[in-house]
């Protein structure tokens, strides 16, 4: 490893094997989250001098204990629906509306009204809403979400910029938007851009800030610049580790060039992905036409990411972590779809058998919250590990 490159830390769950096996014995499928890991990741970002406020994109994991832990680290909470707004106020005691950001997409009119009533910061990303519902926005202050013309991220389905994406006001419409806003006395106090999810280039956010700051200088009323989330997680063994130091340095540098704006970031995955594991039980081990498959008691119903984005998650046999005789297996779920595969060709203990506990790693983000009851299978349970105890 080169000097100064971030090094991959050992996963928290390795030292918690017995505790996890005990929880699996209570029942699987089951997500388990380690709050210490959430806090560690939160602190990696709050330690950035250039960043004035961090918001956690709660869509990644809205578990109440996780929200409280992240809010206690000084984060605000970014919500994309009225359901999420009501959820954060219900579960985070003393949460100030100043620390809640509403960044909806194609939301119904009543959600904007309710968000203003709650006193949270509202982000708008099209002119049509202003023209159709002028009374909702008249005399208000809001942020404008922009499409900077291109998307980024780990998969086409999570790129949120460019012509193929439904998000954001294109730059060519900024003048028309500002005219429409002026007509109804709507003040734009923030500019926002989130180009996608799982962006490996640590310099990306620096560029977004520079772009938005240039626009903010022209607009004149802008106080805050929100450069979105999208910080990546090294899911696969060969994935590069995200260089937070480089990310910080880039923001420090660009903030020094445009010091007059409050800099806001809104990561989701980065805080919670590595803090979560999904525990499953092996149901059947089957060989067919030369392919060996390990079946688990949940698949795409508990974790959609592999089937939707071809996402990689490490899969380990928690009962046989030290076995050295390995065989390649496809790890599949019990759902009646061919896409119900959690991992292809994974080296797992050759002795893997019915009842063994499988651990699917790095599933704390977009795991449980995207789980479903397809085939009328039950949703996974959830546990929180904190200070050694289980909640
Ligand atoms: N801000 C906005 C406006 C967003 O739309 C998102 C995510 C975030 C922040 C947080 O992005 P993050 O830091 O977590 O990358 N289900 C997909 C990810 C969808 C992300 C949607 N928007 C997945 O499992 O990869």
Quote the CATH topology of the largest domain.
TIM Barrel
Which blocks of ≥5 consecutive residues have pLDDT under 50?
A: none
What is the CATH level 1 assignment of the largest domain?
Alpha Beta
* Rg over CA atoms: 22 Å
Number of spatially distinct domains: 2
The CATH architecture of the largest domain: Alpha-Beta Barrel
The rough form would be described as elongated
| N-C termini distance | 38 Å
CATH superfamily of the largest domain: Alanine racemase
Listed once per kind, the bound small molecules are:
ligand LLP
Q: Can you count the beta strands?
A: 20
Helix fraction, binned, reads: 25-40%
SS-based class: alpha/beta
How many helices? The count is 12
Strand content: 15-25%
The overall average pLDDT, rounded, is 96
Main sheet attributes: strand count, strand direction, barrel closure: 9 strands, mixed
Describe the fold and architecture:
This protein is an alpha/beta fold. It folds into two domains: 37-269, TIM Barrel (Alpha-Beta Barrel), CATH 3.20.20.10; 274-390, Lyase, Ornithine Decarboxylase, Chain A, domain 1, CATH 2.40.37.10. It is built from twelve helices and 20 strands. It has helices at residues 17-26, 35-46, 64-72, 82-91, 109-118, 127-132, 134-137, 174-183, 204-219, 244-257, 269-272, 305-309; strands spanning 30-34, 53-57, 76-79, 100-102, 121-124, 141-147, 152-153, 169-170, 187-192, 196-197, 224-226, 262-265, 276-288, 291-296, 315-317, 326-332, 341-349, 357-360, 381-386, 389-390. Strands 1, 13, 14, 15, 16, 17, 18, 19 and 20 form a nine-stranded mixed β-sheet that branches. Strand 11 (224-226), helix 10 and strand 12 (262-265) form a beta-alpha-beta unit. Bound molecules: ligand LLP. Ligand LLP binds at residues 57, 60, 78, 103, 158, 160, 194, 197-198, 228-231, 266-270, 305, 309, 366. Belongs to the Orn/Lys/Arg decarboxylase class-II family. This is aspartate kinase.
